[in-house]
Specification:
seven-stranded mixed β-sheet; disordered C terminus; globular; alpha/beta
Length: 567
């Protein structure tokens, strides 16, 4: 009992000491912030002060910049639509504007009237499609003694190299003049391969060169339809055919790409060819006059858009380009989201980097008119490649969601949402009428891709580390159409689940989706502008992209496997 009585005073002393400590902490907190009831009253005015003096003005300036960019893009849209309408309604078709007479075989004089044509097919580890492109090139209708098919194999896998060489030997045994060329290393990537290909003696005897990437399938009469424009019109340096896509209906991802590219062909390139006789070479499905290439300085590997680089330099020399919308070449769209992201990085980073390097040369050039200079610098580069890329992401994925949190900043609703969706609907109706029901999803998907394009644009403008990154766009071809495939000889360094996780989970897209969802929830509770009607669908699209569910999902084992076609 004695020990129990002694423990009670000790316990009381301990309780008093702890209460004294808690009391001291409460006094300190109350001294700093006041009572608990006053904390909100003190933080509230500070937040309002920061908001009114810094956040709202900055956001308002960002909004005004975006509205200016939106206006410039709208003016450019009206401009290209006007050019396209002018070309369709009032301008004559290419066969009426230029000399064009069908070439006929001369039984008496032989094939002297047919110029020597080189067909280049650059390939890099593209096991799924190499037979398609080589076969299509070898089936071109042109006198056999006036045609050379050149396969430029930069493949690094010895198994694939052997297969491509055997395919070339098979066609050579059938009487086709086909040359299989390899080189040491991949310096310059595609531009380096094309440049090396032109150095061979047999290539220097050719007057024209047609270029087809590994997934392209020209029709047999391709040369007979296009070559008369080059032969009979000495001012034309390039003839570009329109791409058609064999896998456009494969999944949601390929349908979105079809809408974007059809607009480029039907509106931008058709109008540019008809009015300005200038547009960017698409890199494949076209025929160059070799004299044009040489006069422009040849292929250069200073950017990842060697095709655009050559087109700009040739245009500055005064050469005219012709786009043939009725001459179509089959090709394949990238059907995996990973391949499409890499392609868009190259297509956005390269033009920005080229703009940085060539804007001075264009402005100082004396061989072209002031109007054409303005068109190259302002319309072709600044508006379409820079402003068009930055505006979409900055406004729809950053500024507009933040505006839903700041009712103090008023946004013109017609400029924010309505005009964009109306323009997208008109674009789809004109370029790809069968996809008119996908106009709204196309806008949401393009907003996702604008994130990747904006990153690539900044890398190109600043010439950062990835400015010259070149990753060949993966094509699936007939790999999963019941045909067997061959495993690559390269060893797999990481476990399959690690590779799958890296390729499928995209943290940046998921963070943007979370940000848009949070802004949408805030708008439901506190906002009056109903921006959440856009924010929630956009966040859903970013979430789908973040988990890698756009496009074809290629299984880990590609032997006799069937892909999962998702979105």
């Amino acid at each position: 009992m004695g020990s129990g009585n002694q423990s009670i005073p000790c316990f009381l002393i301990f309780c008093k000491e702890r209460m004294a400590q808690v009391s001291a902490k409460s006094v300190a907190i109350e001294w700093l912030l006041g009572s608990t009831a006053d904390i909100k009253d003190k933080i509230g005015p500070i937040w309002k002060l920061i908001k009114s003096t810094f956040i709202v003005p900055v956001l308002r300036v960002a909004l005004y910049i975006c509205l200016v960019m939106s206006f410039l893009l709208f003016v450019e849209w009206v401009h290209v639509m006007f050019l396209a309408a002018l070309a369709k309604l009032f301008r004559k078709k290419p066969v009426k504007r230029y000399k064009w007479e069908q070439m006929k075989d001369d039984l008496e004089n032989g094939n002297v009237g047919f110029p020597m044509v080189l067909v280049q097919v650059p390939i890099y580890n593209e096991i799924e499609v190499y037979k398609i492109s080589i076969g299509a090139a070898c089936r071109l209708s042109w006198p056999s003694d006036r045609l050379v098919v050149q396969v430029l194999d930069d493949s690094t896998d010895p198994v694939i190299k052997d297969m491509i060489e055997k395919e070339c030997m098979r066609w050579a045994s059938e009487g086709i003049n086909i040359r299989y060329q390899i080189r040491q290393g991949r310096k310059g990537y595609k531009a380096g391969a094309l440049k090396e290909g032109l150095k061979h003696d047999y290539a220097q005897e050719c007057e024209f060169v047609a270029i087809f990437d590994a997934d392209f399938q020209p029709e047999p009469d391709f040369l007979r339809q296009a070559m008369p424009f080059l032969i009979q019109n000495q001012e034309i340096g390039l003839v570009q055919a329109r791409w058609r896509f064999v896998n456009a209906d494969e999944c949601f991802l390929t349908r979105m790409q079809e809408i974007s590219l059809d607009f480029q062909f039907v509106i931008e390139q058709e109008g540019g060819s008809s009015i300005h006789s200038f547009f960017s070479f698409n890199g494949s499905g076209g025929i160059w006059r070799i004299a044009t290439i040489n006069e422009a300085g040849g292929w250069k590997d200073r950017t990842t858009v060697e095709d655009m680089d050559l087109a700009i330099r040739a245009g500055l020399k005064g050469w005219k380009f012709l786009f043939l919308g009725d001459l179509q070449v089959k090709s394949e769209l990238p059907s995996t989201f990973k391949a499409y992201r890499f392609q868009q990085h190259r297509w956005s980073c390269g033009p920005a980097n080229l703009f940085r390097k060539m804007v001075i040369d264009i402005s100082k050039n004396k061989d072209i008119s002031l109007r054409k200079k303005f068109y190259m610098i302002y319309n072709f580069f600044f508006i379409r490649k820079v402003v068009g890329t930055m505006f979409t992401f900055c406004f729809y994925c950053v500024v507009l969601p933040l505006l839903s949190l700041m009712p103090e900043v008023d946004v013109p609703k017609w400029g924010a949402i309505t005009a964009t969706f109306i323009i997208a609907t008109i674009n789809t109706l004109i370029a790809t009428p069968r996809s008119i029901h996908l106009a709204v999803p196309w806008v949401l998907f393009e907003n996702i891709m604008s994130f990747h394009r904006t990153k690539a644009l900044l890398i190109g403008l600043m010439e950062a580390k990835r400015a010259n990154e070149w990753i060949v766009t993966e094509k699936l071809g007939d790999t999963f159409k019941g045909k067997s495939t061959v495993e690559s000889s390269k060893p797999n360094k990481h476990p399959q689940w690690v590779k799958l996780l890296r390729e499928r989970i995209l943290p940046q897209e998921l963070l943007i989706a979370l940000f848009l969802s949070a802004c949408g929830c805030y708008g439901i509770v506190y906002g009056d502008d109903m921006y959440y009607l856009y924010l929630f669908p956009q966040s859903v699209f970013f979430t789908i992209a973040g988990f890698g569910y756009f496009g074809t999902i290629v299984p880990s084992s590609q032997q006799q496997a069937v892909p999962q076609l998702l979105f």
